[in-house]
Amino acid sequence: MKKIKKILVANRGEIAVRIMRSCRELGILSVAVFSDADRTAMHVRYADEAYNIGTAPSADSYLNMEKIISTAKKSFADAIHPGYGFLSENSTFAKRCEDENIIFIGPSPFAIATMGDKITARLKMIEAKVPVVPGIQNQFKNPQELIEAARTITYPIMIKATAGGGGKGMRLVRDEQQLLEAVEMAKSEALKAFANDTIYMEKYIENPHHIEFQILADKYGNTIHLFERECSIQRRHQKIVEETPSPIMTSELRIKMGETAVNAAKAVNYHGAGTIEFLVDQNLNYYFLEMNTRLQVEHPITERVTGIDLVKEQIKIAQDEKLDITQDAIKQNGHAIECRIYAEDSDNNFMPSPGKITFIQEPMGFGVRCDGYVNKGYEIPIHYDPMISKLIVWGKTRNETIARMQRALYEYKISGIKTSIIFLEKIMNTPDFIEGKYDTNFIEKNKEILFAKNITKENLEELVALTAMLDYTDHIHKIIQKSKAVTTKKSRWKEHGRRYEF
Amino acid sequence: MKKIKKILVANRGEIAVRIMRSCRELGILSVAVFSDADRTAMHVRYADEAYNIGTAPSADSYLNMEKIISTAKKSFADAIHPGYGFLSENSTFAKRCEDENIIFIGPSPFAIATMGDKITARLKMIEAKVPVVPGIQNQFKNPQELIEAARTITYPIMIKATAGGGGKGMRLVRDEQQLLEAVEMAKSEALKAFANDTIYMEKYIENPHHIEFQILADKYGNTIHLFERECSIQRRHQKIVEETPSPIMTSELRIKMGETAVNAAKAVNYHGAGTIEFLVDQNLNYYFLEMNTRLQVEHPITERVTGIDLVKEQIKIAQDEKLDITQDAIKQNGHAIECRIYAEDSDNNFMPSPGKITFIQEPMGFGVRCDGYVNKGYEIPIHYDPMISKLIVWGKTRNETIARMQRALYEYKISGIKTSIIFLEKIMNTPDFIEGKYDTNFIEKNKEILFAKNITKENLEELVALTAMLDYTDHIHKIIQKSKAVTTKKSRWKEHGRRYEF
Amino acid sequence: MELEIKINNRVVKVKLLKREGNFVKAQINDNIYEIDIVKICENNYSIIHQGKSHVIDMAHISNTKKYTAATYFNNYDIEIIDAQAKAKALRKANNPEEETKIITSPMSGNIVKIAVSPEQEVKIGQLLLIVEAMKMQTEYRSAFNSRVKKITVQNGDTISAGQLLIELY
Amino acid sequence: MELEIKINNRVVKVKLLKREGNFVKAQINDNIYEIDIVKICENNYSIIHQGKSHVIDMAHISNTKKYTAATYFNNYDIEIIDAQAKAKALRKANNPEEETKIITSPMSGNIVKIAVSPEQEVKIGQLLLIVEAMKMQTEYRSAFNSRVKKITVQNGDTISAGQLLIELY
After folding, report:
1. CA proximity to B78, closest of B324, B297, B373, B320
2. Bridge partners of B139?
3. Residue A1 falls within a domain, yes or no?
4. Are residues B311 and B280 in the same domain?
5. Is B383 a domain residue?
6. Which pLDDT tens digit goes with each residue over B388-428?
7. Does A294 participate in catalysis according to the annotation?
8. What's the rounded mean pLDDT across residues A249-253?
């Protein structure tokens, strides 16, 4: 059994910081890597050591395997944690680590490769008697083959990148006319994101639930699941709100799906933390969608209801420890919801909103966890993911959790950029969400509520105008003052009692 | 059954904000009151409404009953939450609320008065067969009576204010020579803090554990306890670290003390949230110390292991609801520790350190709750308590909790004032604490570790000197620049690539 | 002291009547306001008005006359209207198409594709270029039937918010 | 460029050799340092030195030449020593008692008791006055056998940190 002493975190943003937190709690040193765009980022400051690995574009830095491996060697890191995204599901990278005698904190290159290629994964799952969505797993050689394959599945059809994840390289096609253009777009995105433009197509299940199971497995064949996460609320095929337990889950279905998830993981001799994603239709039939062979963005809601620190478990498994948790000992305690805070304009087709944070106030108090990485003055780079933080809230009941999330979102203030906070508040106030009656069609179905223009309370608008005037005149006043006396130090606002008459 | 719609919070600081958070989760409007010194404080901004109630000294504002009651009426608040400190254990105030038909969120005036007067409380407890510390409950008419009473108890003796709490009005006396001066000091402090200078004396139990039980009782006689809190780590007779479960607690003792605590509460027909404090000696004998008829500073550790929001329970009880929790249904889930962040100089006899916060970074992540109220730019008033925040950490085991607390304290940065953060880090690294072998003598016993001069790591000192030089020269440089061009907006630090040669 | 302020799509006249320490009396259109206002830190104001507590965040965008303001419940776009702004608005009103036939970037990002060339005819809805930011590609399409006058960026360029990309005739 | 800097009880000579963007080369006493330093926000610096990441907080106290600095593990008192500071130190060295026989307040607070009167004899350890701040009373006692020269505060006064309270002969 090896004891890991230093971990290089091959990632950035909130997940890099989150991993380093667990390292620190385990007494393990952490090494940050950063691109030119990230010198001032929090993970660089949080780590014990930090090394520049290249220019801003990911391909030159966070996806640069050789640079990352040489940095691990230079800093004497004995393990690499890939986080999610970037190299986390790259079997070549996992193999390179193995070859260099660096522990890759994740599953084997075989498991990554098998599950990472959607076509191989489907075959493996069918073999293991795990239900899958009807679809075509061939590699398509020409447009005609594509069109014919689509006809046999019947529309609507979902085009997916075999190396995909996070909604990239995905396109919904409702009729044959859209097919070729959609495939081209999906391929182009997939190539950019995963350096692999192979795609496949599946029957599109109308308005399913998107429910996933968290898996933990050690290297001795012990495999357990940590219950489900309901991830049906998505915009642009990307999750924005997740919760556990799922409002539609029954005890019987949970046991059945949990067993299926464990079998799916065992089919590839999985070890580490992983997630089996399922589509669940209106009749509670479920289908294997994919396995994410890494930590999931929404892992904290599972941590909160089970009490288990998943990053610590990943590290313990990586250093050949046996799982010390049994399936029976894990309980779902209370309810947890995660809201993802994106730097984006929800009212404008969720367009990204990079820029400089001029003010930030993060929510706190009982039952609130906020995993972010931006601070006042931080300039969010255009090069990476728009997710700037995750707000995870726990309550004894689902109702208490929703009320607490509303409270936490009320407290959360970020200015200088547009964020999803107000949109998330609207989701939390949507009757369908409050009643737990929603599926992946939620945003479309509730668009009138979610994209309604905000209604100004009372005469708040005029108070805002007055504040703007005061700020503006004080600003002008300050410039004038400065030109008179350079060394003046007093803040205009602190001179209580100073009199102005107009 | 009345439904509370609006609550006036007759307090300030972190506890006012904490109460308002639960109000918001319950859909109840909150009203803040503030002194002249607190216009910029967080509770004023967090509340739905805010009213000035007087000048900075507490006697004129936060202790001004009539002003607070008239503000409640003016704002149509149907209830008042007193928090802790200030008017929270003032039976006259509770009675005034009752008379004015405003719900006082706390126990009856009778329960407050009975438990608030230490002498009456002792008699009541003896009657209810609750074990008490040997002591004298007479009111002392003259010095001679005092000296003789002390002789019958035998030294060491603890002098306490009958109306006391929070360590104020307390003095330890080891021999007769110190007695009269100590009594005078205790009286003076008690008068200031509680407007009541009655004192009493007790046998001082050498190095006891200070363990308390959280009580919840509704108005229908249902009384439960929410387990213990270990509060033995104190400086200046004030708690600084609390944890639950207590490292010395056994299942049998927990059941016994829990039953005693419930009986103590029932003896005064208690309703609401309250705390029974016990002294526990080296042989696990326990004695009733006092009852705090209010929310306790350290209530969040109980919230964390039981999942119960105590402020919500207080409000539900106050509006005549029945407890919906039974004793059997409550479980202690994992372990929680609270560290109190004081604005004080731990290396200089814990002298208060008021001043302006120039930078603050609060800890976050899994298992961390930070209940504070200060922000960057906030000037901590000299008039009120030096506690500026509470850091509450949870883990599956005590060891994980300590490691997580160390990590959270590492993340916690406050500058501009001195705080207890570094002192708390030292406590978390003291072998006695880590092994759970400590009592109220902990700080004295470990003073060599706790008050050791910090050892500078590596050549960090020289890096700090270099940073100071750069900051200083840039500052000078900026002043010169400003005098040249007033409207220059670029920050010197953002001009990457600008070249300086010396 | 008096100023016109545009808030979202509405213009209000704000007249400061009195200012003494935190206390401000002002007239906004026909309403009189007496408020207690303090600046908590850069951008962040606490206001008490008739007992109600409000927090208003007031962040500059691009220049000192434009703000985005946020309360706990809403966002506002604000512009201070001075003589210069009035003149600009007037010019725009007289010549409505002057400023609309240019394509500017609403956000910073990288140009990943330019789908037209100078002098090319374009139709409403036709793809002009694709910008990538934060791993998302956004397509900019023409709002006019027109012709490309000038393309001011190249493939691979990093652009900032508000930057001119394409001019149409 | 060269400066003397007092850090805790030690004085170091800092010589800037080169500065280019984030990169700084400097000599401190006999050691050469090459660091990557950026200011994250007011007070807060991130430094990378030989791969190690440090965060240093650099807060001014009372004037621009004095700082309290904090790293994650330690606090430091810092003073920039220029000609003025050197002269002051020299004067103090020549006349060691000059500045020690005054009682100043280490913190702000309220005077709740003055226990001595002008010209009164005081002994070492004798109570001079009591200051209250944040609900805690602190007793100031004499460090000398001396006599009270002047009391510059009154009962009930609000005092600030560093304020002169009592002078002794």
Report:
1. B320
2. none
3. no
4. yes
5. yes
6. 999 999 999 999 999 999 999 999 999 888 999 999 999 99
7. yes
8. 97
Q: Is there a single domain that holds both residue A397 and residue A474? A: no
* Residue-number span of the structural domain to which A194 is assigned: 134-203
Of D7, D65, D134, which is closest to B354 when you measure between CB atoms? D134
Runs of H (alpha helix) within B27-59? 42-46
Domains of chain D, CATH where assigned: 2-81 (no CATH), 83-168 (2.40.50.100)
pLDDT digits over B354-383, tens only? 888 988 999 999 999 999 999 988 999 999
The confidence band for A68, taking pLDDT boundaries of 50, 70 and 90, is very high
pLDDT value at A229 more than 50: yes
Judge whether A83 and A10 are in contact, CB under 8 Å: yes
Domain end among B61, B90, B105: B105
In this predicted structure, the answer to whether residue A490 has a pLDDT above a threshold of 60 is no
Q: Who among B22, B482, B487 is closest to A486 (CB)?
A: B482
Residues A73 and A121 in one domain: no
Q: ipTM strictly over 0.90?
A: no
β-bridge pairing A223-235 and A171-173? unpaired
Asked if A224 and A118 sit in the same domain, the reply is yes
Measure the CA angle with vertex B123, ends B119 and B125; round to 5°.
115
Record the pTM: 0.89
Number of domains composing chain B: 5
**What 3-state DSSP class applies to B473?**
helix
Cα separation of C52 and C36, whole Å? 10
**Do C28 and C12 form a contact (C-beta atoms < 8 A)?**
yes
Do B212 and B313 share a domain, yes or no?
Answer: yes
Please tell me whether residues A328 and A372 are part of one structural domain: no
At B129-143, the pLDDT tens digits run 999 988 876 667 788
pLDDT digits (tens, 9 = 90+) for A369-387: 999 999 988 999 999 999 9
| Other beta carbons less than 10 A from residue C102's beta carbon | 14
Quote the strand ranges of B174-285, DSSP E. Answer: 199-203, 209-217, 223-235, 238-244, 272-280
Question: In chain C, whose CA is at the least distance from the CA of B378?
Answer: C40
Chain A hits for D38, Cβ within 8 Å: 39-40
On whether the CB atoms of residues B133 and B202 are closer than 8 A, the answer is yes
Mean of all residue pLDDT scores within chain C: 86
Read off the CATH number of the domain in which B158 is found. Answer: 3.30.1490.20
Q: Is A497 a residue whose pLDDT tops 60?
A: no
Give the CA count within 13 Å in the CB-facing half-sphere of B317: 29
D46/chain B closest Cα distance in angstroms? 10
Checking if the pLDDT of A484 tops 60, the result is no
Q: Which of D52, D55, D74 sits opposite B454 (nearest CB)?
A: D74
Give me B255's structure tokens: 């059941």
Counting as contact any 3 or more CB pairs under 8 A, the partners of A are B, C, D
Q: Which residues of A touch D43 (CB under 8 A)?
A: none
- pLDDT above 80: residue A493: no
Rounded-to-5 percentages of helix, strand, coil across chain A: 40, 25, 40
Catalytic annotation, pick one of B294, B340, B369, B404: B294
Residue B66 makes CB contacts below 8 A (sequence gap 6+) with none
Domain boundary residue, one of B168, B203, B238: B203
Q: CATH no. for residue B270? A: 3.30.470.20
* B175, part of any domain: yes
Percentage of chain B modeled with pLDDT above 90: 71
CATH number at residue A98: 3.40.50.20
Q: Does any domain span residue B1?
A: no
Q: Do A358 and A475 reside in the same domain of the chain?
A: no
Same domain membership, residue B462 and residue B445: no
Q: How far apart are CA B202 and CA B290, in angstroms?
A: 12
d(CA B121, CA D130) in angstroms, rounded, equals: 33
Within D42-126, strands assigned E span: 44-49, 52-61, 63-70, 75-81, 102-104, 109-114, 121-122
